[in-house]
Design a protein that fits this description.
This protein is of the alpha/beta class. The chain has 15 helices and five strands. It is elongated and about 75 Å long.
Amino acid sequence: MVEEALVEPDRLDGTPHPRDTVQLYGQAGAEARFLEAYNAGRLHHAWLLTGPKGVGKATLAWRIARFLLTEEEAETGMFGDMPDAKPERLDVRVDHPVLQRILAGSEPRLFRITRSVEEKSKRLRDVIVVDDVRKLGHFLSMSAAEGGRRVVILDAADEMNTQAANALLKMLEEPPKLTTFLLIAHQPAGLLPTIRSRCRELRLATLAPEDMAQALLAAGIEAALGQDEAKALSALSGGSVGAAARILDLEGLVLYGELIAIFQSLPKLDRSRVMRLSEAFAARGSEQKLDLLLVLLETLLFRLARAGAMGPGAQDLAHAAEPELFARLSPNGYAAQRWAQLSDELLARARHGRAVNLDPAALILDTFLRIQRSVAEQSAR
């Protein structure tokens, strides 16, 4: 049985919950933009936090919530005048009683919306449903009598179904006084245009290698990364801490190196190497690693296409052998187009194979044989 209190869909596997994460790395620009609006007295009632998954959107939302709920007492001076000193950071003192209540999940002026557990099946829902949003209406009506600022965190807004989105829209159209909505969205294009138009967007950047290393340590992921490894991890994860944690946990850097070695053998193809790789993923319990292999293969094909279209220096290195490999296999725009098309075809077949439980060894071997055939045909021209 799954207890709802223990389910936290807004927490990435292997990392602390964003409410427990005090420090945010690599997003000083986003924090500064929010504080600029706050200090100028132009605090919008709804903010849409966007950017790739795992770059710190939820952590920033909780930092903003802590800041707003603790800064309220400093917003007016003794005689109702605005204080001269304006906050420069979102940091909150650790002994503040509001912070302690947030950590305990008992702050009455903070409301969190995530995917909930279905009552009958006790399973986590795939989407945020209308009942989840309707609870917000009850919260707003109850806390309005108490006065003071309120904060709503919705993680993630692009997981709402149509009914839930329409229910939220009504609240955004007539926002309650002193209420700030913080909507987290990994795919903002999937939101209703009317929701997006009522929010001010705060876009977060992907993390640089040095920020990535610090964020991983702060998340309790012990990884003694050298400079080259940090750069490779940043490139392969798309600057996402969540993706980087998964890559490290499943030895993705080693796996990507194996893919590079196989591609270096093209157009002949090192079949013995491919067979060893196939056999390794045929073992029971290797499903997660197989999924990561397909993600890394997609990444490599994308990087090949990008190198041909934009030049070998257009992207950070994920492996020392990439420059020579990319120059040989993807020297121009025509090759880039071929790699992009091949990526679409191969990954569609691979995902179908995973969906119908095709033998992993056969799936991997078939994928690389098709890659070899494509490279051989191009070399013959």
